[in-house]
Design brief:
The chain is of the alpha+beta class. Helix content is about 20%, strand content about 25%. A hairpin with a 2-residue loop joins strand 3 and strand 4.
């Protein structure tokens, strides 16, 4: 008896994408999904669908919209392209001290995490950046892994391959415990 190990790719949403934009149905609820429906959590760019090196007022409006309670514990999450645009805003206005040019890990005295899951296209309605206290985003991980034995593995057309297999799965979820801890920058 020979057991063959095969890793099959899944069409499910990727892990990092689930924690950013997951719907909460068959995936964790992403931070953007959880916060975007809350009144006052969205800061919309002055000119819809435009976020450029001249949009420093929009960046500052996002920082100013965050409640004082969360200012010291907040972190930026954005795409690399959005970060570079904000970096140009700071240089263009002479506010170079606001951004640490040496290591690129802080912006307006707050830590920055770059995520390829965040969009960079400034299409109207896209969420370009999240600013918030991520200790208020809870990831819950159910203990244990379920493993099932498959006595007859079949191919894509349903024909047995003469192999046996194992399928393992576990449950992971995520949600925001306090929506006021986050603000979103919307193009």
């Amino acid at each position: 008896c020979r057991i063959s190990w095969r890793v099959r790719s899944s069409r499910r949403i990727g892990r990092s994408a689930a924690f950013v934009t997951g719907s909460g149905s068959n995936a964790p609820k992403g931070v953007i999904t959880a916060v975007s429906g809350t009144a006052g959590s969205l800061v919309t760019c002055t000119t819809r669908g435009t976020f450029s090196s001249a949009s420093i007022a929009d960046t500052l409006a996002l920082v100013n919209a965050l409640p004082v309670r969360y200012e010291d514990s907040s972190t930026w999450v954005m795409n690399k392209a959005t970060y570079r645009t904000i970096e140009q805003q700071m240089v263009g206005t002479g506010a170079v001290k606001a951004i640490e040019m040496t290591n690129g890990n802080t912006l307006l005295d707050l830590p920055v995490k770059r995520s390829s899951t965040m969009v960079s296209a400034t299409t109207s309605g896209n969420i370009l950046a999240v600013l918030g206290d991520f200790s208020q985003y809870i990831v819950y991980d159910r203990l244990g892994v379920n493993v099932e034995f498959i006595p007859n593995v079949v191919d894509g057309s349903g024909i047995p391959t003469g192999q046996r297999g194992l399928v393992a799965y576990k449950r992971v979820g995520g949600d925001v415990s306090d929506v006021n801890a986050f603000r979103l920058l919307k193009a």
